Structure formats: C-alpha cells, structure tokens
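Chain A, query sequence.
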Amino acid sequence: MPPELSDHFKNRRPSAIRQAQIIFSQRKGKDSIQVINLAIGNVSLPMYPAMKKRMNELGDKGFKDGVVKYTPSVGTTEARNSFLNIIASEDVDTSNLNCMITDGGSQAMEIMLLGVCGPSSTKPLMLLDPAYTNYIEFAKRLSIPIVTENRDILDNGDFAILDLQKIESKIIAEKPSSLLVIPSDNPTGQFLNQSQLIKIAKLCVKYGIWLVSDEAYRQLYYGNDGSSSIWKISENDVPGISGHRISIESSSKVWNACGLRIGGLVTDNLEFHKKSVSEYTANLCANAIGQEVFGSLAHESSLDLKKWYKSQREYYRELMYSIRGKLLKEIPGLIVSNPEAAIYLVIDFRNICDDIFDATDFVKYCASEGKVDIDGRNYTLLLAPMGGFYSDSNQGRTQMRVAMVEPKDLIEKTPEVLSRLYFDYLNK
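Chain A, predicted structure.
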C-alpha cells in the first residue's frame, strides 16, 4: 500500500486561473483547436526595451561562462533599485523604503502573510471581496483566516463603491492584523483613487493594523485621476502612517515579464524588512537571471518610464473598451464590468441564464469539448470562474474573469467565440 497524502494535498484543487488550462491540456485533439487563453494574466506583449536589451546581453553580463550563482537573499542591489526607481517615478521620496526581491509577486504575497499574520494565525487578513485568488489560496496554505467586505457588481458593470463604515465595523468586530487593497484591482478592474486610499489608511492607523497594497498594476488606470499608491500618502495626509505600509511589486504586468518571476516586497517598516529577509533566507534567493534582466530598470529616467506607462495604458484602454462593447452587443443582457484599471473584465450571466447555470461547469465545457468554427478554423476559450476569487465561491457562480493577455487578433475574436460557446452549451 502506498503512503498516504496529507489532508491538505487530498483537498487541493487547481487555482481558478489554471483550471481551464489543465483541463484543455488533457483534451483529445487539442492540436487542431486554436485556444484563446484569457484565464490567467500571462501577458503576450514585449518587455520594456531596456529589459529586452539586457536579456540579449546576458552573456556579456557575467553569465558567459555558464556560472549562475545565488544572489543575496534580499536581492541584488540593482534589482532592488529598479523597484525603488519605478516607485520614485511616481514623484515619491523612496529614501525610507526598503525592498526585497522575491520569486514573483506571488512569493512576496506569501512572505507578507507570514509577516503580518503568521502561520495558523488567530488574527485574520482582511480582503475586499472578490479578491485576487492567490491571497485566498496562500491563506489556506498557511491556515490564516480571512475576513472580507463585499463588493457587488451592478447591472451597469460598475462594482459597488467601498462602504468605509462597513469596513470599519468589520475591523472592529474581526480585529484583522492587516487590510489588503489592490488600487488597480485584480480581478474586478475597479480603481481606488488616492482619496479613497487615504481614507483606508486612516482606518489602518486608527486601529493599528498593517496597510498592504498590491501595486502590480499601479500605472494601468483609465480615468483622469492619475495613479494611486500607498507610497503617495504623506504624514500630512495621514499622521502616523509611516511604518504601517507594505506593497507587493511585480515585473509581470506593467513590464510584460511574467516568466521572469521577479517580484518585490517593499515596506517603510525597517523591522518588517529585516525579518522578511531572515524568512527568505530559507528560499536562498530569487531568480538570478531574472534579477539581472529586471535590474536594467534601475537606470531608466522617470521621463522614459512615464512614456512607457502611457503606451501601456493606451493599448489596454482601447482594447478593453472595444471588447466590452462587442461583448454587450453579441450577448444582450450580459453584464460586463467597466474597465477602470488593470487588465481584466468580469462577465456575469446572472440576468440571462437559468438557475442551474454554473460558470465553473461552463469553463470546463469550453476547455474539454467546446469549439466553434470561424473561417474554417476551430476555436475555444479559456476563462477563470470567479468562484475562486470569492471567500464564498457561491457568490461568483455566474461570473468569469477575462484577462486581456493574448495577442490582439485573438482577443478580438473573443466576443463571437464566447457567444457561440455559450449558446452551444445551453443547447448541450
């Protein structure tokens, strides 16, 4: 008899953002189907030019002899300065900020959870529901409780404005160790402006809890308010805010370098930083080659970085508004979120589906057997069921997240492919 798996492994299911891809990989005849994978934020755009140049010069940057050594656990000075240079381009004084490099933003999330809650904690992490699924999954892994304040999607595609009184009541009742926000939000695409962040920061200072901000999409906003960041909050705005803040940083999204697996954990609390590095020594260090490539951003001017941000915003703004309009036209009655920020749309079938429609089942259908013929070629669509982004998965039963990550010509086929897959599924 083979040895027994742990209860944790027995109950483990793939993340909501990987489910469809795994199912499709096991599909018979998959090589004859063009898949449009919008389930995971795996950006297809090229990296920032200096990063591409650095990647092409790796042989001249100390790797020609084939030796790839560990870096310091905190990360190379150059890679750390890259994240600080990016934050500084927001007209922020970074002299009191401390940065550690991690294997992707995901590893920064886990280290953060260990630092503000700790494994098997009695103090919960507070999220805004729906929340990025990795925070939910890492909390399960570490046996950390979660408390949430809900945001409902309205029929017009807006997510409900945050109710600060409800958030404060939840803080008082549940006594979380920290409140996590994503100003340019994944998965909702909702944008929290600087005024809202300041109000949230005041609550965190008032109740002595950590303010954690995932800023992977910081410069991807589509309104006129400008970017928002916890690092733009001054002591004049929120007396006592210094030492309360942690941000999750990433090379994946604005910089289009998902596969580099370079993230950052930035804080204005020196003790938290020192202990984070101590914790990360068990991981040894982040990807050395990824740090080398990403380190090129340490030398870029704020002017050049701002030009890049503008180009990325313009690309996503045009694409997302266009796709939203076409989805509403192809499937009348579908709810499609208004793209305020980030690179995601949330679609909700609640007003047009029957009581038994389940987004997870529909996603499985698309990945395992669904296909539509367009001009002699078969297509299918991979999406992420939103149940995985809620603390209560039943809340997202009719919803899916759509990531704007495939090449533009494939994304533009999405409204027709989704419409035909949906009606084929109903007739199945």
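The chain has a mean pLDDT of 94. The longest strand covers residues 98-103.
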